[in-house]
Write a structure and sequence with these properties.
heterodimer, A: about 300 residues, mainly alpha, two-stranded antiparallel ribbon, two-stranded antiparallel sheet, 12 helices, globular, B: about 150 residues, alpha+beta, Jelly Rolls, four-stranded antiparallel beta sheet, about 45% strand
Chain lengths: ~300, ~150
């Protein structure tokens, strides 16, 4: 009888192993220390629903890069964060912020199809993700292969954006929202840095509007960071820096012109054209001020590497 | 006893094969991204599983908020999981006002995707639910049209 039970147990174990497809990318069984979590009391200040409300797509690196591409702004490697020295990052705070910054750079590289240049960035991202114990969501080998071969840009874009989405989802689901908030802030600040630097040299209304509209998003980003502000000096300093950028937006005006949406069918797809419009009023001086503040904060954040 | 062991083993083999035959949610996301078509770039996915609507109660809805940007075109695709009883549809709201839905309940017509030409940067709400409140599972994918 005992022998039969042992056999059944062995079969169940074997079957469990066999039926776990892609187990390397499914870390559900792993448990992580919560050293980088914020005490429950702190997190409670912002309800879960409110956090969820603001974190979806708060900063998308490919959207900014897409605008730059449409403007026909030439690619410039000089704007990318240096990858040398990333191994020296020691705290989870630094790793998470830099993971976001390099994520934005990866989006910029990929949208410009500078995929050969992206291998260094990919390697650093992989190391940082491993350091934060989320490397299992980053399929480095496939990304590297797609980057080197330049064969399938769509797959490369999908895999890289999807990796970041999965990391973000995993962090939030596992009480590591503070790390997710840092990563999102990193993506945002690098996108903001790229956009503002380009806007100084290329006068384009769409890009200027995009920078001005960040006033709305920055408010939510600060709300996302606020619960963690008291958890360490690093968070407090970051919050202070982001507040300084917000001060640059004080006189920027975002207003709305009402309009009814128009719906039509095109090639079997339902299309809605929005006629309500957001309007940004931002002077050259305000733009220059915001660009300088954004550059200062971004450079301060990458100075740790 | 021996027979029971064989039956149990065969049962487990069958269950395992059946499980392996089901595509994972990640596979469904990839399929849905492909369905979005060419000239699109994936931005976000939402994995939805909802129970059957209870009588005299609101239809179960999965709600997500997402920043959408002026001067961008977005494509929202929905894909049902294989074996899902319900058919997934999406409704897009701007500050509580319905902008568009991929399902017209009066005609019964359902689209697998909707394109949104955005002219106002802001936080939009996406509602995912299943036609007639049937239980079901699927994914919603948001792409940027290049």
């Amino acid at each position: 009888m005992t022998g039969t039970l042992t056999k059944i147990a062995a079969v169940i174990l074997l079957m469990s192993i066999c039926s776990c497809r892609n187990s390397s990318t499914r870390p559900g069984g792993l448990s992580f220390p919560v050293a980088d979590s914020v005490p429950a009391g702190e997190a409670e200040k912002l309800s879960e629903e409110a956090v969820a409300d603001i974190v979806q797509n708060i900063a998308s690196p490919v959207e900014i890069a897409s605008i730059l591409q449409k403007m026909q702004v030439p690619f410039s490697a000089g704007y990318l964060a240096p990858t040398q020295g990333a191994d020296r990052l020691t705290t989870n705070f630094q790793k998470a912020v830099m993971l976001g910054i390099y994520g934005a750079d990866l989006g910029y590289l990929n949208m410009y199809e500078k995929t050969g240049n992206s291998v260094d960035v990919l390697s650093v991202i992989k190391r940082l993700a491993d350091g934060l114990r989320v490397g299992q969501y980053f399929d480095f080998e496939t990304l590297k292969r797609l980057s080197v071969s330049k064969s399938n840009l769509d797959s490369l874009l999908f895999l890289s954006v999807n990796s970041y989405n999965q990391i973000d989802r995993y962090l939030r689901d596992n009480d590591r929202g503070s790390i997710s908030a840092l990563m999102i802030t990193g993506v945002w600040i690098e996108g903001q840095y790229l956009a503002t630097q380009m806007a100084l040299s290329h006068n384009d209304k769409i890009l200027r509007d995009r920078i001005g509209e960040q006033k709305i998003i920055l408010g939510d980003l600060l709300m996302l960071l606020r619960p963690y502000m008291e958890s360490s000096e690093e968070y407090r300093a970051l919050y202070g820096m982001m507040e300084r950028i917000r001060s640059g937006y004080a006189e920027v005006k975002v207003s709305y012109r009402l309009g009814e949406p128009e719906t039509k069918e095109e090639d079997g797809r339902l299309v809605v054209v929005q006629h309500e419009e957001s309007i940004v009023e931002m002077t050259d001086a305000q733009l220059a001020d915001i660009a300088e503040l954004s550059k200062e904060v971004r450079n301060k954040l990458i100075s740790g590497i | 006893m021996k027979n029971r062991f064989i039956i149990l083993t065969l049962g487990l083999v069958f269950l395992s094969l059946a499980a392996a035959g089901q595509p994972s949610t990640d596979d469904l996301v990839s399929t849905c991204v492909l369905a979005a078509g060419e000239n699109t770039t994936y931005l976000k996915d939402f994995r939805i599983q909802l129970p059957k609507a209870v009588q005299n109660a609101a239809v179960p809805v999965y709600k997500a908020n997402m920043y959408l940007m002026k001067n961008m075109k977005y494509r929202f695709c929905v894909c049902d999981a294989p074996g899902s009883e319900g058919e997934l549809f999406i409704t897009l709201y701007d500050q509580g006002k319905e902008l568009i839905s991929s399902y017209n309940s009066s005609t019964g017509k359902k689209y697998s995707s909707i394109d949104f030409i955005c002219n106002k940067t802001g936080l939009y709400t996406i509602w995912y639910s299943f036609v007639d409140g049937t239980q079901g599972s699927g994914v919603g994918v948001v792409c940027m049209i290049r």
